[in-house]
Specification:
With about 220 residues, the protein is mostly helical. It has 9 helices and 2 strands, in the order αααααααββαα. It has a two-stranded antiparallel sheet. Helix 1 packs across helix 8, helix 2 packs across helix 3 and helix 3 packs across helix 8. The longest helix is centred in the first third of the chain and has 13 residues. It is globular.
């Protein structure tokens, strides 16, 4: 659940992201990625700064210096955002149920939290599922650092509360025709020669969000 002291931050940030819906929908039109997913990525990567690249927060009018490096420069925030999502292969995705959306959001940030055995701050910060552990820079892990940003899961829930058009559903829910039949969740990529890490059963910390969004529908 969202931490009580964070509720007002989630609500205020959700309202701010929804206010920019037309710009996010422009990116959706070119990639197929739901606008609200684009919005929460933008907030995580650049605190919704329109000068920040959706890929990593670097200025979009310059070549990126953070991972992914060497992208750009671009002519607009939108063109940089389209490039970032296509670079991750998100334009090839068709299943945007809540479980797979959160899986993709974690993959967008990377599997470092997974490797440390803690819930991803990128997804869960600001909720009871996250306590500490953070990458303070690319490749620099601090188990005691606490992410002050809001996580994507709580943001999606707060946005869905405020905007009835956000109809993200749980896997297998056929009430929303825009959600396609879910496909098996792939195993997170791991470097060779380490054996692939199997994706476990649905984490228990997802249940609160799935339940709340299902009730909304």
């Amino acid at each position: 659940m969202i931490l009580p002291e964070k509720v007002w931050q989630f609500e205020a940030t959700a309202a701010r992201l929804i206010a920019a819906k037309p710009r996010y929908q422009t990116v959706e039109n070119f990639t197929g990625v739901p606008w609200y997913v684009v919005a929460v990525i933008h907030d995580r990567e650049a605190s919704q700064d329109w000068k920040g690249n959706l890929a990593n927060g670097d200025p979009w009018n310059r070549v990126t210096t953070h991972v992914p490096k060497g992208r750009g420069p671009f002519s607009s925030w939108e063109s940089a955002a389209v490039d970032a999502l296509k670079y991750e292969g998100f334009d090839k995705e068709s299943n945007w149920c809540i479980e797979h959306s959160l899986y993709l959001l974690e993959s967008y940030n990377g599997w470092g939290y997974w490797n440390h055995g803690v819930p991803s701050a990128y997804v869960w910060a600001g909720t009871a599922e996250y306590t500490s552990g953070k990458y303070t820079a690319d490749g620099r892990w601090d188990p005691n650092a606490v992410d002050k940003q809001l996580g994507c899961a709580g943001l999606l829930f707060a946005m869905a509360r405020q905007d009835p058009s956000i109809t993200i559903r749980r896997q297998g829910d056929t009430r929303e025709p825009s959600i396609t039949t879910p496909r098996p969740v792939p195993v997170p990529p791991v470097p060779k020669p380490v054996a692939p890490v199997p994706v476990p059963a649905q984490p228990t910390w997802w249940r609160w969000l799935i339940s709340l969004i299902s009730k909304k529908g």
